Amino acid sequence: MEARLDLFSNPVAGKIMKHFTAAGKAVKDAGLPESTRELVLLRVSQINGCGFCVDMHAKDAAAAGETAQRLHLVAAWREATVFTDAERAALELAEQGTRIADAAGGVPEEVWANAAKHYDENQLVALVATIATINAFNRFNVIVQQPAGWYQPGQFA
C-alpha cells in the first residue's frame, strides 16, 4: 500500500506537521502523566481507524514501559480492570471529544466533571490539546491512506 501523498517529503505538509508536532510537545510540561497521554493517543487513533497512529502509539507506549495487557485492553477499557479511575476519565473524555458529532451538545457535562475530578486545569488543557492534535494527525493519515507497520519507536522524537 502506498500513501496518496508523501507527507514526509512534501514541504507544505512538513510545515503543517511541524506545527502539529510542536503543539503535541507543548503538553509535556503540563503534568499530564505520559502513560495517560499515550493511552489517549492510542484510543483516539483506534476510534478514527488510523492504522499508522495505532502502530506508532502502541509501539511508543510499549517502549516507554506500558504493558502489553493494558495496550491490548485500551479498546475495551470500560470492561477492563487494569486502568485507574483517572485514566478511565481521560479515555472517556477522549472518546467523547473525538465523537463530537455523535452527541448533540458536544462533550457531556458529567464527562467533563469526571475528568476535572482527576486532573488540574493545566492537565485538562494538555488532555484537550492531546485529543485535538491526535484527531488532526489521524485525519491527515486516514485521508492520504498512510500505511502502517513500519514505524520504529521514537522515530519522530
Topology:
Layout: H1 11-26, H2 34-48, H3 51-63, H4 68-73, H5 85-98, H6 109-118, H7 121-144
Structure description:
Keywords: Oxidoreductase, Peroxidase. Residues 16-95 form the Carboxymuconolactone decarboxylase-like domain. Pfam families: CMD. GO terms for molecular function: peroxiredoxin activity. This is AhpD family alkylhydroperoxidase. It is a single chain. With 157 residues, the chain is an all-alpha fold. The chain has a single domain, classed as Up-down Bundle (AhpD-like). The protein is built from 7 helices and no strands. It starts with 10 loop residues before the first helix and ends in a 13-residue tail after the last helix. The model has no long low-confidence stretch (mean pLDDT 93).
Jot down its keywords.
single chain; 157 residues; mainly alpha; AhpD-like; 7 helices; AhpD family alkylhydroperoxidase
